[in-house]
Amino acid sequence: MSDSLIEESILSRPTYGTLKIVPGLAHYFLADASGAECIIRDVQELPRDMMEKVHILYVPTPGEAALITSLYALGAKRFEHFPTIEEAVAKLGEWLSDAKMGSQLYLAGTEGLVGQGVAKGEECGLDHTAVQCEHRGSLARRVQCVHCKTMIEDVTTQPVKCPTCDLLLLVRDHYSRRLAAFQGVCINAEDPTEEIEIKEVFK
Amino acid sequence: MTIQFKDESFRGDFSYANSPSNIPRFPFPFPEDEYMYSTNIEPHHAARTGSPFENAFDVDEHYVAEMKDRALVLAEDPGRCQALPHMETAGWDFLELVMVSKARDYPDLFKLTMDGDRWHWINTPLQIDDTFTFGDSSTLPCHPMEYIGRQVQGDHAILDQRDGNLWMDAGIITAQADWSLDFDIGMNFFEWHAPVPLAHELGVFQRALKFLLTLPQGQPSRRLNWTLTVNPRLDTSPENYPKWGPDRMTVTPENIGEKIHLRVELQTFWRLPRSNAILFPIRTYLMAMNEVVTQPKWGRRLHRVMRDLRPELVEYKGLSRYHPILVEWLSQFDDGAPTSPGIFPD
Amino acid sequence: MSASDHLIPVVVSNVVEVNPIIKRFEFKHVNGDELPAFSGGAHIVVEMLDDGTKRKNPYSLMSSPFERDQYAISVRRDDTGRGGSKFMHEQVRPGMQMKISAPVNLFSLDLRARKHLMIAGGIGITPFIAQMTQADKLGVPFELHYAARSVSQAAYMDSLADRFGDHVSCYCDDQGESVDLEVLLSNQPLGTHVYVCGPKGMIERVVETASSLGWPAAHVHFEHFLAPPVGEPFEVHLAKAGIDITVGAEQSLLEAVEASGTPINCMCRGGACGQCETVVVACDGDIMHNDHWLDEEQRAAKQRIMPCVSRFRGKRLELDL
User: Fold this and answer.
1) Who among C112, C189, C218 is closest to A100 (CB)?
2) For residue A70, with 0-12 CB atoms within 10 Å meaning exposed, 13-18 middle and 19 or more buried, which class applies?
């Protein structure tokens, strides 16, 4: 079991496991600060000669350095860190474009990071069923406003106001792997005068 | 038989209506006095001259107006028509199926001439006369799915088959009952149906998927699905929910007959030859309550179905706000007499 | 409803002896109509009327999916089988009328692939001939690795080399050549899909090697070209029809059910598609599950059977038909 707190839901809502290194020609890791310990936990168990096959991308929390040091100390063939998920995922795409079949992809951290890593893997020709994912950290969601298509990052409330079109969105459990986002649909479209309390639910 | 195409709208002034002669051919979706989910799939054989099941792709008096409405939706939101890169072959399969079927079934309206890969297509109602090379997308103004999708009534999803599942990897979807292609594209059969209540537990989707995975070429199938829509609006997409959602507040006992429409989807399933994908046309028929009750059998039965509908389905189909007054209104057409089996009017 | 209920009448337009054990058969529609389009990897079911016995065997289409005036299949003669291949080799002549099903594809290319890697053994070459034609036309990179017992048994190798050049490599057992799967599967760009069709052992080696190198299962595709096995005759009771039938030694249970006039669904007739799955009402004996459809638990439970390829030995078998 992973340490994830995700409750059972509808079939489109992703579920996550615990990373476990499997046979492969190369091993690509991507994590944010909440998932870094998953990489450290698994990679430090590997024999030294395996490190030639290990490639790590990391998105630290601003100002944090201790985990960067620990990840660097693992001695991977490549280790790079980026301030945003977007940049790290773009780098992952560069690395995967030269990769061979038999490469393994491991993702650990918040759902936004994991989801975008899966989508990039699929874009590069790696079936999503082949990607290992471990959820760590906050349950904040990445939400697509179905009306104006804005991607809203780190959503913790239900409903949430779309910053672009101002509609109040119900955050559904319906999830798109391609968009790496949950669906947000106007909650009071039938009667826009309806008052709805906004509660913090995805912590 | 020449069809008189109507000049009408599915938005704004909602001038859409069915001619008296068009009413009895409506695919009324209830073969019995009660409704529950089932995997109600049957062979899509030609059935009943004049019915919407007579031809592979039914063309009726709303054809031209529906295609105009589709063009309006696509102009506003091109994301309603999308295909993942591997779906081009399937797009050509779709184009071929529609052109061959329509030219065969409606020779006075559509004409297809094939000289090897060089095809000449004439669509008289839409005033289209094009020559192109089959299989070469550079000879069409757009993706083959979009090209033909703009010339055939109903939404069309194309499902790629792999790994024992079906994947919604392409579609032209402008007249949908509240689901988003832009969001669902790339999902598998269980994922895109995930929000549907009750049916997963009943095993409906497992059975349907198993059936569809072995759907043979040349043996299409069909089923009917239904919901209710306020006003004859084709585009009830989640994207535009803020535009059509408020309509649900406008229903009163006085205007039910003209406002509420029975919305029936004639869903068909076709194995496509070159891509091995499945074409999933979802053809929508709309009929105002006032038009439905002109057929006494339908009035009686619709009252019984609505009265006894499971609460989860009332909620899921978005009927909650006006369900009680609709049942009350329909009761005046139910004299308690028995109804004959099947969907066709007496 | 069943795919083989809707048969297409064809005439045998050509029979070619490819080598001592393989013959190619070409079919045209009896009316000269176009045959249905198909995708590489599809098969048809050929109906054989062999002296009172109606037999239906699946064969992969090897002709170009882009040409619809005729179909071609290749049949390897198997003298120990049920007699289907023997019938094709000995009885079928140009000009003869036969019936075939519409094409069915249980071994299609994954059209998302960046590259198709095809591995064929012996007669397993046939679906790849159509698939290479398709991949070539779509402009997607592909490679074929073809293993045969000898140069003379490597059917179609010369014409494939002419058409596809470096994209095809042949390995002959009698020359001591073999595919180095480890090297081959270690050097494929991400997004490659591998397809294998050939003897059971070859399929297993490819699946195992790919898995040990870290290939995801979704990128590994295989087709068992499974013919219904022969066996001892046995009796079956069909509960709904209320009749007893006998399945002959060289007949499949499915064919015996069909011969009795009892309706049954089916499609691939090779234990792969799942259409003919039938509920077992009572079973006192052993079911020889020869299919690729039921899982171990279902086999052990003896509550389901795939009549197209599975057989029975014991006192009583009663089916929900």
Assistant:
1) C189
2) middle
Give pLDDT tens digits for C139-198.
999 999 999 999 999 999 999 999 999 999 999 999 999 999 999 999 999 999 999 999
Strands (E), C30-154: 43-50, 53-60, 71-76, 97-100, 115-121, 142-148
* CA dist., res. A127 & res. C131, Å (int): 22
Told to judge if B25 belongs to the known catalytic residues of this protein, a careful annotator would answer: no
Quickly state the pLDDT bin for B197 (edges 50, 70, 90): confident
Provide the 10 A C-beta neighbour count for residue A3. 13
> What's the domain count of chain A?
2
Give B34-46 pLDDT, tens digit per residue.
987 776 788 898 8
Q: Which stretches does DSSP call E strand in chain B? A: 42-43, 81-83, 110-115, 118-123, 128-133, 155-162, 165-172, 221-230, 260-271, 278-288
| A48 domain-assigned | yes
| A6 within some domain | no
Kindly report the nearest CA distance between residue A101 and chain C, in angstroms. Answer: 5
> Tokens 């979706």 label which residue?
B29
Whether A69 and A148 share a structural domain: no
Model pLDDT, residue C274: 82
User: Looking at residue C291, what is its pLDDT?
Assistant: 85
- What does pLDDT average to over chain B? 95
Q: Is C96 helix (H, G, I), strand (E, B) or coil?
A: coil
Evaluate whether residue A187 is within a structural domain: yes
Last residue of a domain, one of A112, A135, A158: A135
Q: Would you say residue B232 has pLDDT above 70?
A: yes
Supply the range of the domain harboring residue A168. 141-200
Say whether A169 sits in a helix, a strand or coil.
Answer: strand
- Answer whether B236's CB lies under 8 Å from B178's CB: yes
Q: Residue A17: inside a domain, yes or no?
A: no
pLDDT tens, residue by residue, C96-113: 999 999 999 999 999 999
Domain end call among A90, A110, A135 = A135
CATH number at A96 reads 3.40.50.80
- Give the position of tokens 């995801």: C216
> Average pLDDT of A122-150?
95
Task: Say how far apart CA B152 and CA B147 lie, in whole Å.
Answer: 10
Which of B118, B222, B223, B271 is flagged as catalytic?
A: B223
Contacts of B182 in chain A (CB under 8 A): 146, 149
pLDDT in tens, C70-93: 999 999 998 888 888 999 999 999
| DSSP state letter for B33 | S
Nearest-5° angle of CA C102, CA C269, CA C304? 135
Assess whether A31 and A88 both reside in one domain. Answer: yes
Test mutation, A101, A104, A126, A132, chain C, max C CBs within 10 A:
A101
Contact B184 A13 (CB under 8 A): no
Residues in contact with A20: Cβ distance below 8 Å, sequence separation at least 6, in sequence order: A42, A132
